[in-house]
Amino acid sequence: MIALSPIILFFLIYVGGSILLNDFYALPISIAFLASTLYAIFLYCRRDKLEDRINVFLKGAGQSNIMYMVLIFIMAGAFANLAKSMGSIDAIANLTLAYLPTSMILPGCFLAASIISMGIGTSVGTIAALAPLAAGVAAQTGGNTALFIGCVVGGAFFGDNLSFISDTTIVATRSLGITMMDKFKANFRIALPAAIITIIIYIFVGSNIETSQDFKSPNFLLVLPYLVVLLTSIFRVNVILVLAIGIVLSIAIALGYGHTPMPDILGAMNGGIMNMGELIVVSMLAGGLIELVRKDGGVDILMKAIRSRVHNRCGAELSMSLMVMLADFCTANNTIAILITGNLSKEISDEYNVPAPHTASLLGIWSCVAQSIIPYGAQLLLAAGMVSISPVKIIPYLFYPFVLAIVTLFFTFFLSKAKKPKQEIAK
């Protein structure tokens, strides 16, 4: 069990420190990972040479999957921030809301948040863009602000969960060794029914809403970069090439249509890359830490514990879902939760014949569900802070995450074909 102590120490430092400081974002998660990593490196120095321990860490931190994710993070940050700076987010919001009847404003807000989040790959950025708009419409109609904000937050998580450039998608697909499209198809068949049910709920709830809010006619040219990224991803174009196309197209539009100076364009791209800095550092620290734990036998201990309680595919899916949710509750970061549990989930899915795309989908879904309902998560804190209400008031109106959880459990219990573990098939 000593082999698991670095992970336990990480949770104690991060969760305990956050509780003592009464703020889950006062203690940087990178510091908790750094302290745990140093502890793991020195844990068995009496048995191993220090240089050997460091090399194990470097092997894990620099593995090809981690470096591939780092490159995608850099390009995704540059593209998303450039597109945001040239007004593409406002264009998508207007495109979604300009042609809707007032009684469809709630479903429209959900749809706008979904499209924007799918395009820019971040729920936080979507909430920052749309929360003020949703609060303004709520004030104008005398509606419940928490209801409108909950609508935006739910849509943001729907799009973030499916986006081809979302960090959660990148981590999940690289951890399981599958393509973005494989994960999208597995995810979509679960998320779409949940989204349709949610939209029906919003249609019913918002049927009496009336507003004179005048949404500007959308500029279709500004939507084009997101549309190209989405379509090229659907046709299985490599994600690096997809992002490169999106960046080049955004630069061309910013220069030609927006008459934006090149220094401003480069500054926007650099700002997006810098925004990914902590995620890049944490990804490398997490990869090295998990490799140390694996070498010391910690992963084998977890696998034995899971094997003793899991006997079929359904149980395997539930165990992976619970693991990623617990990791998210402790870290308040769905990307980090997938990083922590991704490799172990791959081993479980291989052993119990759970298709890798479905496993990646489960990790994305349950980490998003957990992240959306914790009042100390970045998304709810941001949304609540922007409209001056308590995060707790928003949670009852997060229809989409709750519906998604129910639909996913239905798939797990009733639609997943139970298969015997591989070792039983061999016998």
Walk me through this protein's architecture.
The chain is mainly α and 427 residues long. Helix content is 78%, strand content 0%. It has 22 helices and no strands. It has helices at 5-21, 29-43, 50-61, 64-85, 88-97, 105-120, 123-141, 145-162, 167-176, 180-205, 220-234, 239-256, 262-275, 277-295, 298-307, 313-331, 334-351, 356-373, 378-387, 391-394, 399-415, 422-426. α6 runs antiparallel to α7 (123-141) and α6 packs antiparallel against α10. The longest helix has 26 residues, at 180-205. The radius of gyration is 22 Å and the shape is globular.
Low-confidence residue ranges: 421-427
The radius of gyration is 22 Å
Number of strands: 0
Assembly type of the chains comes to single chain
Shape: globular
Average pLDDT figure = 82
Order of helices and strands: HHHHHHHHHHHHHHHHHHHHHH
Number of helices: 22
Q: How far is the N terminus from the C terminus?
A: 31 Å
Helical percentage: over 70%
The major β-sheet equals: none
Secondary-structure class? mainly alpha
Percent of residues in beta strands: under 5%
